[in-house]
Amino acid sequence: MIAAQDLQTDFHYPHEADTQLSSDTDLEDPEVRNAKSGKGKKGKKVPGEKGKGVLVRAPGRVNGHHQENGMENLSLFEIVKLGKSATQSVVDDWIESYKTDRDVALLELINFFIQCSGCKGAVSLEMFRHMQNSEIIRKMTEEFDEDSGDYPFTMAGPMWKKFRWGFCEFISVLVRQCQYSIIYDEYMMDTVISLLTGLSDSQVRAFRHTSTLAAMKLMTALVNVALNLSINMDNTQRQYEAERNKSLGKRANDRLELLLQKRKELQENQDEIENMMNAIFKGVFVHRYRDAIAEIRAICIEEIGVWMKMYSDAFLNDSYLKYVGWTMHDKVSVQETATVTSALNARLHSKLDLYMTDRIVSMALDKECDVAVQAIKLLTLVLQSSDEVLTAEDCESVYHLVYSAHRPIAVAAGEFLYKKLFSHRGPEEDALPRRGRQCLNANLIKTTVFFFLESELHEHGAYLVDSMWDCASDLLKDWESMISLLLDEPFPGEEALTDRQETALIEIMLCAVRQACECHPPIGRGTGKRVMTAKEKKTQLDDRTKITEIFAVALPLLLAKYSVDAEKVTNLLQLPQYFDLEIYTTGRLEKHLEALLRQIREVVEKHTDTDVLEACSMTFHALCNEEFTIFNRVDIARSQLLDEQVDKFNRLLEDFLQEGEDPDEDDAYQVLSTLKRITAFHNAHDLTKWDLFTSNYRLLNTGLQNGDMPEQIVIHALQCTHYVILWNLAKVSEGSSQKYVQSSAAAASQNPLMDLPVLCVLQAFTILCDALMIFSHQIMSSGRDALEPLVFSPDSSLQSDLLNFILDHVFIDQDDDGSTDGQQDDEAGKIEALHKRRNLLAAYCKLIIYNVVEMSTGADIFKQYMRYYNDYGDIIKETMSKTRQIDKIQCAKTLILSLQQLFNEMLSEMGCNFDRSTSSFCGIKELARRFSLTFGLDQLKTREAIAMLHKDGIEFAFKEPSPQGEGGPPLNLAFLDILSEFSSKLLRQDRKTVHLYLERFMTFQMSLQREDCWLPLISYRNSLQAGADDDTMSVVSGVSSRGTTRSKKTKITPAPAKRKLPEGGSDAGVWMPREPTVQQTPVMMSSPHMASTVLREAKKLRPDEGYVGVYTMISEGVVIKKCFFCSPSRRSTGLMEDDEEPIVEDVMMSSEQRLEDLNEGMDFDTMDIDLPPSKNRRERSELKPDYFDPASIMDDSMF
């Protein structure tokens, strides 16, 4: 590409080196150094014969492979791309060809860089010899087709992901293999550096990116060569000094001359390397570190960090540090990550000034997680070098990140916290005992407790422990010291822990035990359980054994000390869940088990708090394991405890019911306390042998009749009755209690929502929804047909009551909710009330999803989607998705019904002469637009549903006559304006059919009307006629606009023949009623997890944002792109320019279902999606699928 005679005019090296190179690290291999004897002398060219443009290979081998592998005609680019050849062999073959004919070899190297840029052009030998450098680059630019999108560094696939590594490795090995001779011949390096410098100044992004990457890797390789030269010079100088200091009789003058000559040669080589490095730095780095493309800037900054780490004597100074400091203020995440990573690699923490430190602290709070992690790690290094650099405010900014939901950030912040608070030890601390209350770990544990309390995030102890687990696991596993702090008396002069500090310490201790036994992060931080290694499993077993041995002895003592503190006892009682129960027997710890059971019994008798009682119940459940020998002992203790409680409850109940309408408060309290204990145990234990249903039913029946029953008694009686039914249902396979369960379920469903206190009604509604779910047709799944008599279906009256309850108690304003007993001003109370309402809505939506109630009842839920989007948007969205999976047509009818209900409500409020620009009408129209977007882009799948939706909408629009008499518009005509939001989802032939169906309701005079009141009809007709000539179908292929595919496996199936509609009234067949289909829920359909406590923000849409639908037309085997309603293009920050597409509204389907839907009915092995090329040299890039909508596969990301 670059003629030899053009080198002096196009490019020259600076005469004075800006960098002084010196180091004293790794020595050069003597055997490798001896190979330098064949090095070309300075100023001389290595002779070689001119070839014919073909590299001369060693006979029988090509790039390390035998010729029978079929690689003898492959170019360097193809060899590196395939990655089947060892890089060392490829470079050795190239060096052999260079020694044979250096012009031909350089030509292949030049074309290698050109092809790596995605350019299809090639430099010929004639061009290389006779054309100027700039002319050749201009020629390659003209032949570059950026619309192809075939840029190797951004293409998808495992081969291309590996290509970048192979490209960088090739350059590094090339310089390493040529470092003793070829790079000093003043030809190869001159040509390559001149080429890369010219390409790095190109306006083509791919050229700039490829050449910058190559130049920076070349610079890194040269830095390594310079470092080796510096080491050799130092060694030679020491040898010379040692020889010269010898006495005259022992001094070897010839050796001194050889050492002087060698030092001179090394100095000359070092000067040449310095010139090359300066040429690359000034010709490429200085210009590209501030390139407009973030990825190019990131390459430069990442490599300068490598140079500083590799050769700190030369690069770790202000001349180069300024570039890192300047780029720290780059706000692009890719560049921020590169900058901080560069600083980490170079260990710049000792060189950072105050100004740069402030910027790093702000980067630790960056929204990009990768940037924040690297910044925190750098701050940790800064902290280790000096405590004075970071202020207290800087440290506090990092401290709170230990509670971050992103685990890498939390772990990095935990290490920072540990280094700051726990790593500094004075000489007096080294003399402390290793165990006990005064040991070093005890003081560190106190510090952890103080930090936990000062952070004021009391319920996040598990997140703090998880953040510090990697760096402070030894501290967190020192349970002996924790127990000592809790049980031992303080020494004279020592300040004892306060009650609040003891509570925090117990919580941290429990979290540490859980982390050691479960070996996975808390909820919200992990991506799922990972497979543990053998070492991790062994550590887990050892920790569990240690926990059992320690707490089996200490837990009864801790319970005895804190038996009256509900919060402490609740946490302590969770510890036995992590015990290895076999150790009670093997370790002869039976007496401690008896002590534990006695303490649990005392706790049950002392407390009435639900959390404490449930903790006791779960402890008995964990200990009552039939696999262990302690089962009989624990089972006896449990039976004795329950016998006493049930007998007490029956005795108190008789006295309580005999008192009539004026029960004594003490008796009511005793009944409630005992009922709480029984209910808590019934949740985890089978108490059917005590026949609790009869007692609870009597209690409920009496309370409902009299109306004066305390609400807490009613709530727990309802819950206990629910548990009775579930436990009897679990035993129904024995055939003894089926009739009892049937009568119990029927009794539980009678009069469920009477005039009771609010809390009782809420509890009754939740239990009723659960019971209806359990005793629905789902109970017969998995071959359990014998349970058919237990199936209970709610009648229309019960369904209406359930729906009215939801409308009255869920879709209300915060100020109207009275469930928090006057605590609406408290933010925590409002959040708790919202969670309760979300649970109620989720319980009812599950009834819709599983066909327990009619799907049409969902219309009253769906119409609240926009108004209550912040509170319930995710639940309603998931409900729409699941109902669509069950029956697309019925779901569409439900959606249009919800819009009709809103339209009727608007008419009743505003009258028939309303303005369509009002907020009410615009809100309905916006809701229709959201509903339309949930149908996705695959029109074939939703064809019938969309057609039925239009049919119902048209009939509704012309259902009511005009209030103005004959000649006026129908009352509901404005509904057509709302219906037009769904027109884009119709296929071409269906648009014609819908238009013909619309004309049935129209008179000739209607078609001539142009008044404002008729605009909805005009706009709806226009929406049906728009695109009527386009055969818009679903996305089926990734074929490019030129008709070529990216995958050889992709096959294009001819479009099916289009059904022609007969003339006249032939469209009636489309609207013929179909055979009634039985809606049946899939048997194994999992219950959706809808009662999430995460409150999502409403997605704010800009008025100027459009929504994009990409479709393809298949005609005669040619695929053509069609784009509707495209949003204004925005500049992207990626390497290849692209139009940034907005994310299409989702239909809330799972990723597995999305892939199945996309691939269903397609005869394609692979599927890619190509964006149309834009005006300004834009590239198509690989698109990520949206995680909700199976058809919304457009994303803002570039690569």
Automatic annotation (TrEMBL):
Recorded hits in PROSITE patterns, A to Z, give: SCD (PS51425)
A Pfam family the protein falls into: SCD
Q: Where are the coiled-coil regions?
A: 226-279
What GO terms in the biological process aspect are recorded for it? cell division; chromosome segregation; sister chromatid cohesion
- Where in this chain does the record put each SCD domain? 285-376
Top-level taxon: Eukaryota
User: One MF term in GO for this entry?
Assistant: chromatin binding
For the region Disordered, give the residue spans. 1-67, 1036-1072, 1163-1199
Q: Which UniProt keywords apply?
A: Cell cycle, Cell division, Chromosome, Chromosome partition, Coiled coil, Nucleus
Q: State the similarity comment.
A: Belongs to the SCC3 family.
Instruction: Tell me the function of this protein.
Output: Component of cohesin complex, a complex required for the cohesion of sister chromatids after DNA replication. The cohesin complex apparently forms a large proteinaceous ring within which sister chromatids can be trapped. At anaphase, the complex is cleaved and dissociates from chromatin, allowing sister chromatids to segregate.
What's the protein called, per UniProt?
Cohesin subunit SA
